[in-house]
Amino acid sequence: KLPQFNTIDDVATLLRNSKNIMVITGAGISTSLGIPDFRSKTTGFYSKLLERGINEPEEVFDIHEFDYDPRTFYQLAADLLPDHKHYSPTHGFIRLLQDKGKLQTNYTQNIDNLEELAGIDKHRLIQCHGSFAGATCRKCGHKVKGTEIFPDIRAKRVSRCQRCKADIAAQAAAPKAKKAKKRISTPYGGRSDEEIDDNIPEPGVMKPDITFFGEQLPEDFFDRFTERDVKTIDLVLVIGTSLKVAPVSEMPDFIPHHVPHIFISREPIEHVNFDVQLLGNCDDVVFELCMRAGWELKHRMVPKG
Ligand code: OAD
After folding, report:
1. The domain that contains 251 carries what CATH number?
2. Could you tell me if residue 246 is inside a domain?
C-alpha cells in the first residue's frame, strides 16, 4: 500500500526527504511580478483578448495565423514581456531546491525566461514552450537575441529581419537591367507612373522563439522526460498552471503512482489526480512550505504593479 500524503506538513517532509524533484511550472508563478497568466478570469491574457473582440485567443499563438498576418501577435505581445529585473519568490524556491541539490528538472511552460534570472542551471531547465530569449527570421532563419526585437514588440510593430534587409539593400545596390516602368492604380483611383519592381523581396518577419500552437516542442523535452526523469524522480511539484495544454498537461499521468504528486495553485484541478493540492497564492505556499521544512527562503521582494 502506498503511503498517504494529506497535509502541508506531509509535503514539507517530502521536500526534506526527496532527492530528485521534478517541478512543472506555469504562468501563475510570474503573476506576482505583474505578468498576466493566460486563463484567469478577468486578469488573464486571454480574457483581455476576448474583451477586445478576439474570440479565439489561442490563435494569437498559432503559427499559421502568425505566418498569415504577424500584426495581431505584435499588437498584443507587449503585455507578456517581462522587465527581466525581478523574479518571484516561487522562482526563488525552485532555485533553493537546486541549491540543496534536490532539483532534477524544472519543466516550465513560461516564455518569460525568468528561470535564467533566478539562476536555474540550463541543464536542469526545459522551456517546454520556448521563450522570448531568442528570435528567428521566418524567411532566412537568422537568429538574434530576443532583446533585439523587444523595442518592436513594445512599439507594437512587426519586427523585420536585419539580415534580410541587408541582403535586399545589397541586391538593390548591385548594377542591373533598367527596371520596367509600370502604370499602377493609386489608392485614389487615379493612375501613377511610379516605377515599381515586382521582384522587390520583403525582409522576413522575426518570430520570438516561443513554441506556437502547430509547432514541435523542443527535442530535449521528450527525451529527458521519458528516458530519464520519469524513471528517477521521487517527487513532482506542479505549480501555477491550469494544465490545459498538452503535452505538459499529460505529464503528471505518465509519472508512476509511487512518486508523490503535489499541486500548488490558486484553483483546484479536477482533470488530473494529485495526492495533495495546496491552494492559494504560490509565493505564500512556498514560503509556508519552506518554514515548515526548516528552510530559509530569502527572496522576499515582490514588486507591485
Ligand atoms: P494558465 O493561465 O492556463 O494557468 C495559470 C494558473 O495559475 C491558473 O489556474 C491560475 O489560477 C493560477 N495562478 C495565477 N496566479 C497565481 C498565483 N499567484 N499563485 C498561484 N496560482 C496562480 O497558464 P498556463 O497553465 O501556464 O502557451 O498555460 C499554459 C500555456 O497556455 C502557456 O504556456 C501558453 C498558453 O497558451 C504558449 O505561450 C505557447
Report:
1. 3.40.50.1220
2. yes
